[in-house]
Design goal:
With 188 residues, the chain is mainly β. It has one domain (22-187): Jelly Rolls, CATH 2.60.120. Helix content is 11%, strand content 31%. The chain has 2 helices and 10 strands; from the N terminus they run αββββββββββα. It has helices spanning 2-16, 183-187, and strands spanning 75-80, 94-100, 105-110, 116-122, 124-130, 138-144, 148-151, 157-161, 167-173, 181-182. The chain has a 5-stranded antiparallel β-sheet with strand order 1-2-9-4-7, with no helix packed on it. Strands 6-5-8-3-10 form a 5-stranded antiparallel β-sheet. A hairpin with a 7-residue loop joins β5 (124-130) and β6 (138-144). It is globular. The N and C termini lie far apart (57 Å). It is found in: Secreted, Extracellular space, Apoplast. Disulfide bonds join 32-47. Keywords: Apoplast, Disulfide bond, Manganese, Metal-binding, Secreted, Signal. InterPro entries: Cupin_1, Germin, Germin_Mn-BS, RmlC-like_jellyroll, RmlC_Cupin_sf.
Length: 188
């Protein structure tokens, strides 16, 4: 009787201690071009009639153009998310181009909905993140042109131009809309 009770308790503990993962599920159709005029929001945008899809729904021009880095942070983001490319709706990916003036900064921030893969196209950037486990470890690296770094989902991270010239990076995200929370703005 005692063994049966112990086993039931063990099974219950295992059931309650299972890890929960969140992700954007695979789409059930080839594509779902966002209907940005609809007021309905269900994990993205409502789909437009697929017969009305055009090439412009799946493309964005001008990612090669520099953003304005003449601001207090010395950085500029050009997004390529569902807001700019309606064809990304429900596909679970997006990207941004980030330009940095000399000594420019992307201050500590998080993306609550996405892991980020970061590639340096020009310049020298220091990047880093803080782990969320009990140690709260700081992990950082200086990256050069062609280097890649990954920021795990939901962790506080930053990028800083440590070179003397401008820098450019492309960051891909595992979400059509990764979200961004700048730590200083949220806390203060």
């Amino acid at each position: 009787m005692e063994i049966k009770s112990l086993l039931l308790t063990l099974v219950a503990l295992i059931s309650f201690c299972s890890v929960v993962h969140s992700f954007e599920p695979n789409p059930l159709q080839d594509f779902c071009v966002a209907d940005t005029d609809s007021s309905v929001r269900v994990n993205g945008f409502v789909c437009r009639n697929p017969m009305l899809a055009q090439a412009s729904d799946f493309s964005l021009m001008g990612l090669n153009l520099p953003g304005n880095t003449l601001n207090p942070l010395g950085s500029a983001i050009t997004p390529a998310t569902v807001a700019q490319i309606p064809g990304l709706n429900t596909l679970g990916v997006s990207m941004v181009r980030i330009g940095y003036a000399p000594w420019g900064l992307k201050p500590p921030h998080i993306h609550p909905c996405a892991t980020e893969i970061f590639t340096i196209l020009k310049g020298t950037l220091e990047v880093g993140f803080v782990t969320s486990n009990l140690e709260n470890r700081f992990i950082s690296k200086v990256l050069q042109k062609g280097d890649v770094f990954v920021f795990p989902i939901g962790l506080i991270h930053y990028e800083r131009n440590v070179g003397y010239g401008s820098a450019i990076a492309i960051a891909g995200s595992s979400s059509q809309n990764p979200g961004v929370i700048t730590v200083a703005n949220a806390v203060f």
